Amino acid sequence: MKLKIFTVACLTLLGFATQAQETQPINPRHEFSIGLGGGLSTLMYKSDIANQTNGFGGQAGLGYTLFFSKHFGITTGVDINLFNSKSSLDDGWGNSYAATSMGGLLPGESFTFSYAFNDFTEHQQAWYLTIPLMLQFQTGGKNKFYAAVGAKFGFPLSATYKTDDYTLSTQGYFPSDGRTYNDLPEYGLGKYENQKSDGDLDLDMAYFAALELGMKWAVGVKNSLYTGIYLDYGLNNVQKTDNQTFVEYTGSEEHPMNSLVQSSISNEAVTDKIAPMALGIKLKFAFGCGDVEAKAKAAAEKAKQEEAARQQAQAAEAARQKQLADEAAAKQKAQEEEAARQKALADVAALQQNTASDSLAKAQEAQRLAQQQAANQQQGFKSELEKPVDNYKINEVVLTPAQIAQLDEKIALLKQNPDVKVFIYGHTCDLGGDPINQRIGLGRAEKAKAYLISKGISPKRILGTASKLDREPLVPNTNEDNRKKNRRVQLVLQNN
Fold first, then answer.
1. What local confidence, expressed as pLDDT, does residue 360 receive?
2. 3-state class of 488 per DSSP?
3. Do 30 and 288 contact (CB within 8 A), yes or no?
4. Burial bucket for residue 351 (CB in 10 Å: 0-12, 13-18, 19+)
């Protein structure tokens, strides 16, 4: 019946595929899928007494995949998984343990209880709800190879065991009278045929390493049919051991049968580990929406538009610069023409003045020489005033005697020219960071200002102080001698 259901479901999915429109597919960003799988699906365990046989089962569920690129995506969803297994005991296998008599047979007396089985076969079945979390890779093209790897988290829904008909033989040895009783079925000691046992298995959450690979066939524009194989390998022990006795003695007049026969895999003394495992084929139909390449196309289109806008802005800026250049050239030409006109007028005036008296010419020459001399004196004053006060030590702002002597020369110049105003700048070499050099340069300028004021220079004549850091070296900072020259204070003449 299970095989028929699986076959019908597969044929239904194939029907969807054959009815789909043959169109050039795209790569959807979102995929919602419904899938079926079947094959080896068993509870794996090892036992020293039970012979385990793997069973078949399957899975069905819903899935969702988010593709973050053309080739890669993250898959999750929910699946229902069925696991089947079978165990059997060798005929005559049994065990014994100390028990206490009940009912009318030597009540309360301790004895050795023994049991043995014949024709014992047990079937186990477990249903799990699993949630996958897997990374999926797929190739390009219309029909793709795909592979998914990751983990699955399984939550038990139900787990049961059921036996076929078996024979149970029990006996009890009582040391008080030295006798062994095996023919008192009314007290749970005897032979019981055609027995059956069933019940629930207490299983824990399962963790799987999951692998799936196969082919992804394009069905229409965005839909796909997956055909592949899958492997879900349980990593942890799902057995919840409670140390149940395999056959629990309950013999009495009220309960003459040793009826509490537990599952052969419910005790860790019988089975050391139980792990679910599934290996089979899978068929999945996926419905796509969105386009994983649309985002990339939109980004490319946006970049194209931005590039066109940038080129347009560059062209507009080039046109503006050309216009400015043309205006500057026209202005220069006008200035040259005005200069030529002024020169012509000057030449005419010069010709008209050739007849002037020699005294006027001499007076004019004397005035020119005086102006030239005054200009030379002003230039020499500016050069001396702005001559650097240098040779500061690293990180030093306090004035040395040599630097005080240099400042005294400038104080003398300032007193000779009471209308002159200055701005004081402090400089550093390239050693140290900007915050330190800013503080040191400003400190040097402030110390120089304080000294000038202490020597009678009016604070109104000092327009301000500032630090130039190491931005305006006099010479390259390649050695200590050059750095000493760059560590300086300069007074800069300011126009009134």
1. 66
2. coil
3. yes
4. exposed
CA–CA dist 179, 161 (Å, integer): 36
CA distances from 131 to 67, 68, 78 (A): 18, 20, 5
Classify residue 255 as exposed, middle or buried by CB count within 10 Å of its CB (0-12, 13-18, 19+).
Answer: middle
Alpha helices in 258-357 (DSSP H): 294-353
Residue 253: pLDDT above 60?
Answer: no
Using left for φ > 0, alpha for ψ between -120 and 50, and beta otherwise, residue 50 falls in beta
pLDDT, position 188: 79
pLDDT of residue 411: 93
Entry pTM: 0.55
Name the DSSP class of 361: H
Query: Taking the CA atoms of the chain, what radius of gyration do you get in angstroms?
Result: 52
Residues found in the chain: 496
What tokens were used for 137? 């890779």
Angstrom distance (rounded) from CA 333 to CA 113:
127
Give the rounded percent of residues in the chain with a pLDDT score beyond 90.
Answer: 50
- Per-residue pLDDT band at 19 (split at 50, 70, 90): very low
pLDDT given for residue 22 in this prediction? 44
Residue 206, pLDDT > 50, answer yes
> Residue 472 gets which letter from DSSP?
S
Amino acid found at 20: A
Distance CA 433, CA 141 (A): 58
The four Cα atoms 426, 432, 434, 438 give a dihedral, to 10 degrees, of -30
Is 385 within 8 Å of 407 (Cβ atoms)? no
27 neighbors 71 (Cβ within 8 angstroms): no
Alpha-carbon distance of 483 to 437, in angstroms, equals: 13
From its phi and psi, is residue 199 left (phi > 0), alpha (psi between -120 and 50) or beta? left
Sort 32 into a burial class: Cβ within 10 Å, 0-12 / 13-18 / 19+: middle
Q: Which residue has the higher pLDDT, 261 or 176?
A: 176
What pLDDT score does 18 carry?
46
- Measure the CA–CA gap between 368 and 345, rounded to whole angstroms: 21
Instruction: Of 69, 130, 63, give the one whose Cα is nearest residue 286.
Output: 63
When pLDDT is averaged across residues 335-345 and rounded to a whole number, the result is: 88
Q: Please report the pLDDT score of residue 451 as a whole number.
A: 94
- Alpha-helical segments (H) within 41-104: none
| Averaged pLDDT for residues 342-368 | 71
Residue whose entry in the numeric block shows the structure tokens 């793997």: 54
Q: Is 47 helix (H, G, I), strand (E, B) or coil?
A: strand
